[in-house]
What does this fold into?
Amino acid sequence: MDMINSMRQDTDRIIGEWAKSVTIKRLSVSYNQRGEPSSQWQTVLQNGSETVDCDIQPVSGEIEREEEGVKVHYSHQAFFPYGTDIRPHDRIYMSADHHLAVCRVDEHDDHTFVYAREPES
It folds into this structure.
């Protein structure tokens, strides 16, 4: 366990050096008294903070990947600290008017790896 904690600390340090601060948002649906749904994108808090550091890298073109019968098309890869609360279909906001759509999330022993793409127009 000490080796895993050491790996996580190393990853956090590296992400901190290369990273940019982003906001993760998740679609939330609520219902009014008549049962009509309304939805909005809400910030996902990360240890009480509205932002989290990550390293986002564009890939060359768009890549299609298939695992376990699921095809994923992505244009960016992102490295987050281990245990980051992020799920497929969330959004990664780099600024108020620029975000990526999360396609897939892989949790590793020392970091969280995310496949994302530019939103469709």
In short: The CA atoms of residues 93 and 99 lie 4 Å apart. The chain is about 15% helix and 55% strand. The longest helix spans residues 2-18.
